[in-house]
Specification:
27% of the residues lie in helices and 20% in strands. It is an alpha+beta fold. The protein has a two-stranded antiparallel sheet. Strand 5 and strand 6 form a beta hairpin. The longest helix has 15 residues, at 3-17. The chain is globular and about 40 Å long.
Length: 138
């Protein structure tokens, strides 16, 4: 298996098991109620860069409100609940994404993050130039 396949599988697994608590407090900003939590006063369109601190980096979702900062090795990641904070602290793969243009693994804390769809999914790029090249590629 390639590193890309492994990282993709790990990311999918993390997404499927994150924020599955029945506790209302823990699910306050989970992606299941995303439309209720997005700050509608700041219009973010598909393809727009989104602020890192408004993204749950475990669910790879734009939440629209400030998330819980998670400092790890001098970098800051963001999670939406205690479970996501724990995963960012303990699982290396939760802090890594694959740039869809270059195919390179990238650190989510350093990524250029854009809104991917109306459900709040985000995509991570190594740079703005990679994002622009990605949007122009066939």
């Amino acid at each position: 298996m390639t590193l890309k396949t492994i990282l993709t599988a790990c990311t999918l697994l993390l997404f499927l098991v994150s924020c599955n608590s029945n506790s209302e407090k823990e699910n306050k900003t989970s992606t299941s109620g995303l439309s209720e939590h997005i700050d509608q006063s700041k219009s973010i369109a598909i393809g727009d860069k989104v602020p890192n601190d408004r993204v749950c980096m475990v669910n790879d979702a734009y939440i629209g409100i400030e998330q819980i900062p998670v400092p790890v090795s001098g970098k800051t990641y963001y999670g939406c609940c205690d479970m996501c904070v724990d995963k960012l602290n303990t699982i290396d793969e939760a802090r890594i994404a694959i740039d869809p243009y270059s195919g390179n693994p990238i650190d989510k804390s350093e990524a250029f993050i854009v809104l991917s769809n109306s459900k709040g999914s985000v995509t991570y790029f190594e740079s703005e130039s990679n994002y622009k090249a990605y949007t122009l590629s066939p």
